Amino acid sequence: MKNTQAYLEHANLATPNLEATITFLQSALPDWKIRGEGDWQGRRWVHIGTDDTYLALSEPPKEHPEQNGWLNHLGFVVENVQEVRDRLIEAGYKSSYQKQVQKHRIRDYFLDSAGHEYEFIQYLTADASQRNSYDD
Length: 136
Description:
Layout: E1 7-14, H1 18-28, E2 33-40, E3 43-49, E4 54-58, E5 71-77, H2 81-90, E6 100-101, E7 105-111, E8 117-123, H3 128-131
Parallel strand pairs: 1-4, 5-8
Antiparallel strand pairs: 1-5, 2-3, 3-4, 6-7, 7-8
């Protein structure tokens, strides 16, 4: 899939009460639906939004409940993850996770010098149902 510009696709936030946050968001934005949900490292997560943009919500870590409202990362859709990776490594930054090559997307994560994490996503399809699949 060819993108002409990078754009912010999602923000990943920790919230102490997922149901209350979902109710708030769907009251304010009734076209936002739950796109996917599950469990990651013992913490429930929910992706809520549209086919093109969403909030990734998760419970704060039990060992760090003070991370309520914590911004985990920002996710940007880019045309070519490898080019972004090469530029960041050349500038002295290190990937915070191993690059993930999946059926419909490639993802890589980097930290800036302040410790903020960024996810860069390259979609390999224009089909929204495949782009938003949680099976791979």
